[in-house]
Design a protein that fits this description.
With about 950 residues, this protein is of the alpha/beta class. About 40% of the residues lie in helices and about 15% in strands. Strands 8-7-3-1-11-12-13 form a seven-stranded mixed beta sheet, with helices on one face. A six-stranded parallel beta sheet has the order 30-31-29-28-32-33. It has a five-stranded parallel beta sheet with strand order 18-17-16-19-20, sandwiched between helices. A hairpin with a 2-residue loop joins β5 and β6.
Length: about 950
C-alpha cells in the first residue's frame, strides 16, 4: 500500500471526527503527490494537486523540502504544470517562510536567467526568515557584482519586508464572547489531558472550552460578519496558569484571521480580554500571534466615603460594574486613539497598554518573531552595504532615571541587553532585546516548538545559548500509545537540533523523566542569567527565568534572543523566626496571604518578585520561586548570600556531572561547558571580583512586602473554594487558609506528594513520618491513597544510598518499573502508597488524575477546575495545596488534621527550615553588568 492510499484512509477516519485532511509534513508523501500530478489522467491527480498546493506544511519539514524543489523546476521551466504557472510557483514559495524555499529563491535570484532572477528577487524581498548561510550567500553575490543581490540587500536595509505590509486598522469592530467568569486558565482553552493532539491544530481546536461555546462563537461570527470575536474573562484575568501556545492557537483558530491560504489551520491575530487584563505569560503568547490583549477594567471595587473598599461577609471587596461586556455586545477598539468604545461611540476605557509601538509592530507583522528576524536582517543588510539602517522599527524603549539605582532584574537586563545605546542604563519600562542563556522545552509543548522551529526554518541551536534541555516529565506517568508515537520523534528532532534531551534517540542512556524545572534549575549556573522555558513554572532560584509559549521558546533556541520589557519589581523580605513545626511551604503560602492583606490588591501580578532569601540553597528556594507563577508574577529573583550561592553552584555542578556520566552530553559538550561556567562564576564570587547579585540600595520598587514569620503559627492551605457564591473567587490561588479552618474534619480522598514544588528534603520528610508512625503504632495504615513522585532520578538514587527509600518501598503497594512503565492511566486508587516514577504526574492533568469528585490534598501547584481532578455528577472535585507533612498526615488520617495533631506528627522531623539573614547581604554600591 502506498503512502498516498494510507493518507486517503486516514482522511476517511478523520471525516468521522468532523476533521479535514491532516496537513502533510512527510516529504515521501509529497513525492508521491508530485508523481501523480505529473501524469495527466491519473485518477488521483486533482486531489494530489490540491494537497500539494493547500495542505503541505512549510518551513523545514521534509514535505517543504520536496515541495520547494518541485516548485523550482516549475519556476525555471524544467517542468510544466498547467495549474501552477511560474509566477504562481513563486507565490507558493513566498508562503513557505524559509529553509528550502529561501534556498530555492536564492538559487533562482542569483542564477543566470535575468528575467526570472528579478522575479525571484522581488519575492525574496518579502521574506524575513533568513539565517547566516542565506545572508552570506547574498553578501558574497553582492560583492561579486550581482545586481539582484544588491537590490535585495537594499530592500532589506530599508526593511521593505515590513514597511510594505498593510497597516493595522485605525478601528477594529469586535463582538464580545464571555468564555467564563473569573480567572480563565489556559486549561480551559487547551486542556492538559488533550496535550497529545496539540501539534494537530484542527483536532486540538475541538477541545477549546466546549462544543457549545464553539457553536456560540460561530453564531456570533455569522451574526456580525464585520466584527471580530473578542474572548473575555469576566471578573478575572485571561490566560492564567500555563504557558500554552496551543491555547492562543485555539483562540486564533476559532476567532482569528487565516495566516495563509496555502497553510491550513494556522491563524493569527486573536483578540482577547479580561476584567483584570491578560496574564503576563499569556500576553507574550498573544504577541507571538500578532494578537490584541485588552485590560477591560469593567468591574471596579466599590468604595466608601473615605475611598476604602467595601467588603462583603467573606472579607472580599464588593465589585460594581462600570460597563457591560455581556456576550454579543458590539464594541469598537479605537486603535488610533487607544480607546475602547461602545457601539454608540462612548469611551469606556483607555487601552494604550495594548497598543505600544512594539505591540503595533507585532500586529502589523503578524507575529513577534517576524520582527526579531526582520531587525536582524535589516542590520545585516545595512552593514553589508555600508549604510545606516533606516529607522523603521520602533526604537528600543530605553528608560533611564538619573540618580536611581537598579533592582536585580534591571541589572540582569542591562548585562544581557542587545542593540541598546552605548553606555545607556536601563530601568523598568524599557523594552529591549536580550541575550538568552538557558532554554527549556517540555514534552507536551515540545512538538509545537519543533513545528515553530521548522516554520521559521531553523535547523541548529543558536551558538549564543549556553545550554538547552528537552524534558520528558509531562508524559512520564503513562507510556501510552500517544506518548510512544510523539515523544521519540520529539527527542530525535531536539537532539539533532543541539538540545540536551531527556531521552536518547540512540538508546545509549537511560530515559530521564526528571521534572524540567528541576533540571533547568541545575543547569542554570549564573545568577545573572536569563532563562526561557516552555512552562509557566520556569522560575529558577538563580538568574531570572520567564515561562514562555512554544513560539518564544523556538525563537530563543533559534536566535539566542528574546524581546521583552523590563518589568517592575516588588521586594519581599522577612522578619521574625519560623516556628519549629512549620515547613517553608507554609511561608510561601503565607507570603501571598500577607501580601494581599498589606496591599489589598495583588501587587505581584505582572511584576518581578525580588525575594531576599539568601540563606536557602537553590533546591529549597525553588519552592518559593516556583510558586510565584501562582502569585501571577512575571518572574522572580532570589537574592542569595555569597556562600549559599557557591554551595548551590557546587550542587549544580555535581548534578550536571551525573548527566555527563550518564552519557547525556552532546558533540558540542554543552554540559561540560556549563560546569566550566559554574567554576568561573564561583571564582568571581570567591575572589570578590563579582559577588552574588544584589540590588542597589537606591533601587526603586513598585511595592515592598515584609513577611512576618512570627505570625505563621499553623500550616497554610491554598483552597480552590469551589463553592464560593462569587464564581470569580473560585479556583484562584488567593484563598489561603490555616489548617484549623477545616476543624480536623474535612475528608481527604487522595494525597499527592510530587511535582516541581518538592525537593529531596520533602522525600525524606515522607520517609521520616512513616518511620515515626511505625514506631508509635507498629505499622502505617493509610485511610486515603498517597501518591509520591520524586522530581528526579538523582533524588531517588540519593534516598536509596541514605536508607530512606527502603521504608517507602516497604509501604508501597505500587512501585514504578522503568522496564515496564504503565501504558494506561490509573482510574481507581486503593488506600496504599504509590511510588511513581519521577515526573509531573497528577499535577499535569494530561495522564494521571484523581477519581472524579475527589478532594485531593497535594504539594503541587495546580488547583484549577478539572486539572488534577474533574467534577463528578454529585460533587465538585477539589485540589487543595499544602506542605508535604500535611499531605502525608492527611492521607494517613483520611482527613485534614487538627493543628495539634499536625504538631505532634512532625515533632523531631527536619522540615524545610528558613531564617532571614541576620545582616543584609552586601548591597551593591555601583552598577556591574
Amino acid at each position: 500500500m502506498s503512502l498516498y492510499t494510507d493518507y486517503l484512509t486516514e482522511i476517511e477516519t478523520r471525516k468521522t471526527q468532523g476533521l479535514h485532511p491532516k496537513p502533510i509534513d512527510d516529504g515521501a508523501l509529497v513525492a508521491e503527490l508530485i508523481t501523480q500530478i505529473e501524469v495527466p489522467g491519473n485518477p488521483y491527480r486533482d486531489d494530489s494537486l490540491k494537497f500539494f498546493i493547500y495542505n503541505t506544511l512549510p518551513g523545514t519539514t521534509s514535505a517543504a523540502g520536496v515541495k520547494a524543489a518541485f516548485l523550482k523546476k516549475i519556476v525555471t521551466g524544467a517542468t510544466a504544470v498547467p495549474e501552477i504557472t511560474p509566477d504562481f510557483a513563486l507565490e507558493l514559495l513566498s508562503h513557505m517562510k524559509g529553509g528550502p524555499s529561501v534556498e530555492v529563491l536564492l538559487d533562482v535570484a542569483l542564477g543566470t536567467d535575468a528575467a526570472i532572477a528579478a522575479k525571484a528577487g522581488e519575492v525574496l524581498k518579502t521574506q524575513v526568515f533568513l539565517y547566516d548561510a542565506d545572508m552570506f550567500r547574498l553578501r558574497d553575490a553582492y560583492k561579486a557584482g550581482n545586481p539582484v543581490a544588491k537590490s535585495v540587500l537594499e530592500s532589506y536595509a530599508q526593511a521593505e519586508f515590513f514597511t510594505k505590509l498593510p497597516p493595522v486598522e485605525d478601528e477594529i469592530k469586535v463582538v464580545t464572547f464571555i468564555a467564563a467568569e473569573g480567572d480563565i486558565s489556559t486549561d480551559l482553552l487547551s486542556p492538559g489531558n488533550q496535550a497529545h493532539s496539540r501539534s494537530d491544530r484542527e483536532l486540538h481546536g475541538q477541545c477549546m472550552i466546549a462544543p457549545a461555546a464553539q457553536a456560540e462563537i460561530v453564531a456570533l461570527q455569522k451574526a456580525h460578519p464585520d466584527a471580530r470575536v473578542m474572548m473575555i474573562a469576566e471578573k478575572g484575568t485571561m490566560g492564567v496558569g500555563s504557558s500554552r501556545m496551543s491555547g492562543v492557537n485555539n483562540v486564533a483558530l476559532w476567532t482569528g484571521k487565516q495566516s495563509s491560504p496555502y497553510v491550513p489551520f494556522v491563524n493569527f491575530a486573536p483578540v482577547v480580554a479580561g476584567t483584570n487584563g491578560i496574564s503576563p505569560i499569556f500576553a507574550t503568547t498573544v504577541d507571538v500571534t500578532g494578537g490584541i490583549g485588552i485590560n477591560l477594567k469593567n468591574w471596579v471595587k466599590k468604595t466608601d466615603e473615605d475611598g476604602k473598599p467595601i467588603l462583603n461577609n467573606d472579607g472580599n471587596p464588593i465589585l460594581e460594574q462600570k460597563y457591560s461586556v455581556e456576550t454579543g455586545t458590539v464594541l469598537t477598539i479605537d486603535v488610533k486613539n487607544r480607546k475602547l468604545k461602545s457601539a454608540s461611540g462612548d469611551e469606556l476605557v483607555d487601552v494604550a497598554g495594548s497598543f505600544t509601538p512594539q505591540k503595533m509592530e507585532f500586529m502589523k507583522a503578524g507575529s513577534s518573531y517576524a520582527i526579531v528576524f526582520g531587525k536582524k536582517l535589516q542590520t545585516f543588510a545595512a552593514q553589508t552595504l555600508g549604510v545606516e539602517a533606516v529607522p523603521v522599527f520602533a526604537p528600543n524603549k530605553e528608560i533611564t532615571v538619573e540618580g536611581q539605582g537598579l533592582t536585580a532584574v534591571e541589572k540582569i537586563f542591562n548585562r544581557n541587553a542587545v542593540g541598546v545605546s552605548p553606555g545607556k542604563i536601563l530601568h523598568a519600562g524599557s523594552d529591549v532585546r536580550v541575550k538568552v542563556n538557558i532554554v527549556g522545552s517540555q514534552d507536551t509543548t515540545g512538538l509545537m516548538t519543533a513545528q515553530e522551529l521548522e516554520a521559521m526554518a531553523a535547523t541548529v541551536i543558536s551558538p549564543l545559548v549556553d545550554g538547552a534541555y528537552q524534558s520528558g516529565c509531562h508524559t512520564a506517568s503513562v507510556w501510552d500509545k500517544k506518548a510512544q508515537e510523539n515523544i521519540p520523534k520529539l527527542m530525535k528532532f531536539m537532539n539533532n537540533f543541539g538540545v540536551i534531551t531527556a531521552r536518547d534517540p540512540k538508546g545509549v542512556y537511560h530515559a530521564m523523566t526528571d521534572v524540567i524545572h528541576k533540571v533547568l534549575n541545575d543547569i542554570t549556573v549564573d545568577d545573572w542569567a536569563i532563562i526561557i522555558g516552555g512552562d509557566s513554572h520556569t522560575r529558577m532560584s538563580k538568574g531570572v527565568a520567564f515561562g514562555a509559549d512554544s513560539g518564544t521558546v523556538a525563537l530563543a533556541l533559534a536566535t539566542g534572543e528574546a524581546t521583552m520589557p523590563i518589568p517592575q519589581s516588588v521586594k519581599v523580605t522577612f522578619r521574625g523566626k519560623m516556628k519549629p513545626w512549620m515547613d517553608f511551604r507554609d511561608v510561601v503560602h503565607a507570603t501571598q496571604a500577607q501580601m494581599l492583606k498589606q496591599h489589598g490588591d495583588n501587587v505581584f501580578q505582572g511584576r518581578i518578585i525580588e525575594v531576599h532569601i539568601g540563606t536557602l540553597l537553590a533546591d529549597q528556594a525553588f519552592t518559593f520561586t516556583d510558586w510565584t507563577a501562582e502569585m501571577k508574577a512575571k518572574a522572580s529573583i532570589c537574592i542569595s548570600e555569597d556562600e549559599t550561592l557557591i554551595e548551590s553552584l557546587e550542587i549544580a555542578k555535581s548534578r550536571i556531572q551525573i548527566m555527563i556520566d550518564k552519557g547525556m552530553d552532546n558533540a558540542a559538550q554543552v554540559l561540560a561547558g556549563l560546569i566550566a561556567r559554574a567554576d568561573a562564576r564561583i571564582f568571581e564570587i570567591r575572589s570578590g571580583e563579582k559577588p552574588a547579585l544584589t540590588p542597589d540600595e537606591n533601587a526603586k520598587y513598585f511595592a515592598e512586602v515584609l513577611v512576618d514569620l512570627d505570625i505563621i503559627d499553623e500550616p497554610m492551605i491554598a483552597d480552590p473554594d469551589v463553592n464560593n457564591a462569587d464564581v470569580s473567587r473560585r479556583y484562584t490561588h488567593d484563598t489561603i487558609r490555616p489548617v484549623s479552618y477545616y476543624g480536623g474534619t474535612k475528608k481527604v480522598d487522595l494525597g499527592f506528594v510530587g511535582s516541581c514544588m518538592v525537593h529531596k528534603g520533602d522525600m525524606k520528610i515522607v520517609a521520616q513520618m512513616l518511620k515515626n508512625v511505625e514506631k508509635a503504632k507498629g505499622k502505617v495504615e493509610f485511610k486515603a491513597p498517597l501518591v509520591v513522585a520524586a522530581p528526579t532520578y538523582n533524588i531517588i538514587d540519593e534516598l536509596k544510598a541514605e536508607g530512606d527509600w527502603e521504608i517507602l518501598q516497604r509501604y508501597s503497594g505500587f512501585e514504578f518499573d522503568d522496564l515496564l512503565p504503565k501504558t494506561k492511566n490509573r482510574t481507581e486508587y486503593e488506600n496504599i502508597l504509590y511510588l511513581e516514577r519521577p515526573g509531573c504526574n497528577l499535577c499535569m492533568g494530561n495522564q494521571e488524575k484523581a477519581e472524579k469528585g475527589d478532594t485531593v490534598l497535594a504539594t503541587s501547584t495546580r488547583l484549577f477546575q478539572g486539572r488534577v481532578v474533574e467534577d463528578s455528577a454529585e460533587k465538585k472535585g477539589e485540589s487543595l495545596l499544602a506542605s508535604t507533612p500535611v499531605v502525608v498526615l492527611s492521607a494517613i488520617l483520611g482527613r485534614t488534621p487538627s493543628a495539634e495533631e499536625y504538631k505532634e506528627a512532625v515533632e523531631g522531623i527536619d522540615l524545610t527550615r528558613f531564617a532571614p539573614p541576620l545582616e543584609k547581604p552586601g548591597l551593591a554600591r555601583s552598577v556591574h553588568f
